[in-house]
Amino acid sequence: QSELGQSLATRPELEDIEASARFFEDDDGLHIHSFFFFEDAEDHAGNSTVAFTIRDGRLFTLRERELPAFRLYRMRARSQSMVDGNAYELLLDLFETKIEQLADEIENIYSDLEQLSRVIMEGHQGDEYDEALSTLAELEDIGWKVRLCLMDTQRALNFLVRKARLPGGQLEQAREILRDIESLLPHNESLFQKVNFLMQAAMGFINIEQNRIIKIFSVVSVVFLPPTLVASSYGMNFEFMPELKWSFGYP
Fold first, then answer.
1. Phi–psi pair at 241, nearest 5 degrees
2. Quick one: a GO cellular component term (predicted)?
3. Domains of the chain, with CATH numbers?
4. Which end of the chain is less packed: N or C, by CB atoms within 10 Å?
């Protein structure tokens, strides 16, 4: 920080979720803390906060891990040049890349749900069925994190539009990203409805299977009820039990 001559956010500040701590302006510049979606080496989804500070035409970023949106933006930057070349354009380009990544995640969830739907609706319970239920729970978690990231980015862009004097090109770019977010949120909501439907359908098939098993045990218990009654009656302590001397009597 001393080499850059800029005060940057601390770890506790990155973890704050209230709007006043994530989007604000002070003597050190304009500050935006925004969630970025990622999946680790074990394919566990998460959101990591990146701190952005714009001051004197420069953009400072602080993050704890390598993120797909940054990696993708670096690849694009090698073959594309910036139009205006200012800090706001760089920030908005990163946000635009992030929204594209989130849109891809939503499409992937849609595709996975289509495959899970066929497995669950067939109702054939087994290892594949159990794995489908586990995957369904994971997709719900990913969808929730994507939604959180979309809504957080929406708040960040609204703050940027209100507080910063964006050049005409960047103002239109920010509004375009906001429109993209507005179009993605309903898709994300429909994913939750689909997941909820499949989960309820799966629970219904499981209940039917459990009822079938209980019915089988009920029939078996009725079949063995007469022998049980006979055994119970002779299982008492009688003084006179002549059957004990029979060759095929009591064992």
1. -135, 80
2. plasma membrane
3. 11-205 (1.20.58)
4. C
- How far apart CA 108 and CA 139 sit, in angstroms, is 10
| Nearest-angstrom CA–CA distance, 156 and 10 | 19
Residue 200: band (very low, low, confident or very high) from pLDDT cuts 50, 70, 90: confident
Burial of 112 (0-12, 13-18, 19+ CB in 10 A): middle
Alpha carbon separation from 35 to 78, 131, 199, 204, 214 (Å, rounded): 25, 30, 28, 37, 49
Paired tokens of 18 = 């209230």
What is the average pLDDT score of the chain?
82
Q: How large is the greatest C-alpha to C-alpha distance in the chain, in angstroms? A: 109
pLDDT for 82-137, tens place per residue? 556 788 999 999 999 999 999 999 999 999 998 888 888 886 777 777 888 888 98
Q: Hey, is 79 helix, strand or coil?
A: coil
List 29's β-bridge partners, or say none.
Answer: 26
The average pLDDT across 13-21 equals 70
